[in-house]
Amino acid sequence: MAAQQDKRGARMITVLFFAQLREQLQCDKLHLNDYPKTVAELRALLGKRSALWAELLINDSALAAVNQTISDDQVCLNEGDEVAFFPPVTGG
């Protein structure tokens, strides 16, 4: 995946939110120039936005995918990555 650049040429990652997370956070997408090294650190960074963000991304069971692959919190982030957060999926 090619690295995304903002208008100033800085490298970034894209963070997406799906389903109830998107609705509860009232946010569908973020672009971060100064991003952390791992998914766990990204959760912590985003959790600083408010108690609701912390509850949904740190304390709750939100799943993460990096570049459309389900990932654990120790996965390292790289320039141009797309990180998606979504609620656990239940099937029937």
Can you tell me about this structure?
- With 92 residues, the chain is α+β, with helices and mostly antiparallel strands.
- The chain has one domain (22-86): Ubiquitin-like (UB roll), CATH 3.10.20.
- 27% of the residues lie in helices and 27% in strands.
- It has helices at residues 19-25, 39-47, 51-59; strands at residues 4-5, 11-17, 29-32, 63-66, 69-71, 82-86.
- Strands 1, 2, 3, 4, 5 and 6 form a 6-stranded mixed β-sheet that branches.
- α2 (39-47) packs antiparallel against α3 (51-59).
- It is globular.
- The termini are far apart.
- The model has no long low-confidence stretch (mean pLDDT 89).
Keywords:
single chain, 92 residues, alpha+beta, Ubiquitin-like (UB roll), six-stranded mixed beta sheet
Helical amount among residues, as a percent range? 25-40%
The CATH topology, please? Ubiquitin-like (UB roll)
Category by helix and strand content: alpha+beta
CATH architecture: Roll
Tally the helices: what do you get?
3
Please state the overall shape, judged from the principal axes of the Cα atoms.
Answer: globular
- Count of all domains: 1
* Portion in beta strands: 25-35%
Listing every helix as H and every strand as E from the N terminus to the C terminus, the arrangement reads EEHEHHEEE
Give the termini distance in whole angstroms: 34 Å
* Low-confidence residue ranges: none
Using only C-alpha atoms, the radius of gyration works out to 13 Å
**Main sheet summary:** 6 strands, mixed
Quick description:
This protein has a single domain (22-86), classed as Roll (Ubiquitin-like (UB roll)), CATH 3.10.20.
